[in-house]
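Lay summary

Proteins are chains of building blocks that fold into shapes. Our project writes down both the chain and a compact code for its shape. Here are two examples, one after the other.
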Amino acid sequence: MNEDYKKLSNDDLIQLLKDRDSKLNKISKQIPYGLVWEDKDETVVSDFRTKTPVIKINKSKDIEDKNQPTNYLIEGENLHVLKILETTHSESIDVIYIDPPYNTGNKDFIFNDEYVDKEDLFRHSKWVSFMEKRLKIAKTLLKPSGKIIVSIDDNEVFNLKLLLDQIFNENNFIACLPTVMNLKGNQDQFAFAGTHEYTLVYTKDKNKSQFNDMPLNEQEIKEDWKEDEFGLWKEGRYLKFTGKNASREKQPTLYFPVWVKKDGTDLSTKEVKGWDKILPITIKGGKPQEMSWSWSKKKFEEEKFNIIIKGSSPDWSFKKKQRPNIGEVPSKRPKSLFYKPEYSSTNGATQLEGIFGDRVFDYPKPLGLIEDLLLICGNKDSLILDFFAGTGTTGHAILNLNKNDAGCRKFILVSNNENKIVENVTYSRISKAINGYKNRTTNKNVEKLGGALKKLDIHYVENENTDYSNYEISKNLSDTICFKEETYEVVKKNNYFEIYKNEKGKYTVIIFDFSDIEKIPSLIKEKDAELTIYKYQLAADYDEYVIEEIFQNNTITDQIDIPSFYTQ
């Protein structure tokens, strides 16, 4: 019990319970069907009341490549970053992929700076509250055609499905994909050895979204699968043993005759008059040797439908009909049971060990899984956001895809620096992938993938809701504005204004004081340059028409009031 409750009188406690019941009843009436939970306070939410998060560009971490799109790694609390992205990238994201905390109770989910354990009565409410705040903003970031992909396991999959139904509308649900990560299965689990997690896929608007087929490689296209009344099959191994332990002497019970109908359409382990008698005999060194069958007499009879009769009378042989294992049959349309051998969780760990020489993270997602999800849900020019970036698998996967198909996908990765993961793993991994590295496991060089990267950090400015406070916030917004406009080259900076541009000739003008505004046009060299103007003004010093007159030789794409920029 909360210690504060002990100080309350009975009447106060009764009133508190009535207020809680009233709140829950109100919520339940608002949501006639779906997920209802008690919203839990989160420290990072209350932080907004006293401080404003802003972006600062860590120029020392820049990786430049003028031939490749610029990607971003943002270090900071993801709710704060999402609030910034709500300003800078509203309806701009094509695909969101996230791998959030699974809330297993085993120190994987932190709420208000404390791990949530299995004994916490509000364990699920805390997780749902945590996710709801972030997913609501995530929806605003997606284009109308955008998609969101979420990895999860049994602990929260059902709560997450209901939550996503409420936020994105159940009509925009695409799939809940059992995603096989361990074919052997987790032998430590009770009763059933778990082989899979889940991947939930939603769109912002199903009517505006398209999905891609899976590309088939040449080997898959060549697979010669046939179909009978029992399902798909292809030729498997011969049923006659020929190894050193396959002799009749060592396998006496598996040496027996099989009779085959003259036209090869039937067989029997019992003698049938007029049929060919076949024994498991092989010729070695010109001499017949008695071997054995790999199946018992009983299995020959029970599984005749799984036997292929090869050859012609009187010389017959038998092969097994190989029925497909999970994921073996190729299909252009992605399957609802999501599996490839490369999706194994072991691959994710192995990939990190190759980069760092050590297992630096528990259960990282493998590259192949993320690549296929992005191929299905995105395009070659997609902007992809991952606000639970962890070890940076999403960024690495995107660099791989761009290298493989000459795409120009871009990513925004977001992660806090818990256990210095951004510092020691995420940035390092992306840097190595871009520039190439020596695999620490195989000792082989891995070719560079190329790409450009900017490292952004979240800083905070005190917000006291005063003119001075607003001015200080505005003076600290330059990097945030440059991030939005993608203009990083400094043309001019002083106490009155700042000018930035990019290689395409686009300008961003930030005006803090209108005293020197007439000097700005002379600093813009390109004729009829495209520029966006951000202005801080407490009074109507210069209206938009006066500004248009001053910049008449340029094309003003937008004029934005700075206070409204960060308070919207």
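And here is the second example, written the same way.
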Amino acid sequence: MKKKYVAVMLGLVLSMSTASVYAAGSTASTAADSSSSDNSDTSSDNSDSQQEQKPDGEPPEKPDGDDSEPPAKPDGDNGETPTGEKPDGEPPQGDGQGGPGGAPGGQSQGVDSYDAANDYTEDTTVDGETLSSAGTDENAAHISEGAKVSIKNSTITRESSDSQGGDKSSFYGVGAAILATDGEAYVSNSTIDTDSKGAAGLFAYGDGTVYASNDTIITKQDTSGGIHAAGGGTLYAWNMTVETNGESSAAIRSDRGGGKMVVNGGTYTSNGVGSPAIYSTADIAVNNAALTANGSEAICIEGLNSIHLYDSDLTGNMSDNKQNDCTWNVILYQSMSGDSEVGNSTFEMNGGSLTAKNGGMFYTTNTESTITLSDVNITYADDSEFFLKCTGNSNQRGWGESGANGADCLFTATKQEMQGDVVWDSISQLDFYMTDGSILTGAVTDDESNAGNGGDGYCNLYIGEGCTWTVTGDSTLTGLSNSGTIVDDKGNTVTVKGTDGNVYVEGESDYTITVNSYSDKADLSGASSITQWSDYEVEKPEELA
């Protein structure tokens, strides 16, 4: 990776050197053990060489952590995962979310066994029944030992005032309503209601796979995601209705050890602080869904993980917090909590709508990242501070070493209208591509507030033929390659001059663009490509009919 990642890797080495106790116990926990993902801290030296895994393929090796607004960190917390895999981060409280809210969490010791009101170790069909759990840290249903279990037309409840949630719930599924650790769970046309800390609705861990269709899930307490994967688990969902109400309770949540999640249709709503609509320390693809975070950022992606959205409507509403350098709607970062492997964070949105009710739109810091937008209808907050911020951070959250925790970002806009400033700094690297008639209205500014002594970073803007940059203020960038149009909001040509005083374009506008280099032709070969839902789509199994 770039120079700043030396600090990142040192941080990970230190965090992983903390003693972790992993108990390889019962059959159930053996699943937790054997399913842990590869824990090699592979730092990517070049985002272009980073090949992301598709959710419908093998589970990602990296754990995911849920990013959310403080004070509660998003789903995923510190703590070590069994087998050394990193669980996804969690809020300071240690509920397993290592999101933007937070500093590294405590250590997780794994689990020896699971307690369950209904333990399924053989192929079983449950139809029209009520499954309930009131025990401390107990699952209503646990599927293990390779069993295939069909639960349909049923009511599943989980209620316990004594359960504490925390890392074991976030990383391993302790206390989840339905947990699959080794086997397959088919859950359809059922209602899942939990009122207990750490009580996710559906949880896939390790060698467990969950298939869900037309279910209604409501979780009421903290650390209780709606649908959840961790430790390499796999979860597929169709037309679900999910609502979460606690902190660190993303509607679609992943955690340490990562996994894969493919979601087709449905409504996913989170209401708590530190609870994004999606918290990713896994590879996640979503199609034709309504995703709303009423008390948090919309999306949080940590480290080497991904989210791909197709024709979906996404809304976030993160509150301002003095511990943060800014307020954002979508964040791609590395928390250094040990919840996610260092590498390229990927966010792709193709079609649909994106709404921010507060703060700026995209923020990436202390990680490599790839952001790709295509024909998305974007609604901005009234107080929007930026469209894209690609910078270091003040390290109040423990995200890398101050002055060396910038971002390396590849941003591609295709058929995309964008409004707001693009902000970068000298410890970051930003390649911003505009293709297929894209429009940017805003300024490009160099903000060194969190760059320490500075670095050799850059910001390069590539404007393709038929694309337009409407400049709203004096701008500074490293390289400008323009095959399109650059004007101000009055239609006047904008002056482009070099840092050496050379004038490349003489304009009539009051604004000036200052660059190190200029070209009147844009090479777009470095832009990222758009994927399609068909790349991830999974056929619904007959068991869910």
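What can we say about the second shape? Helices lie at 4-16, 27-34, 167-172.
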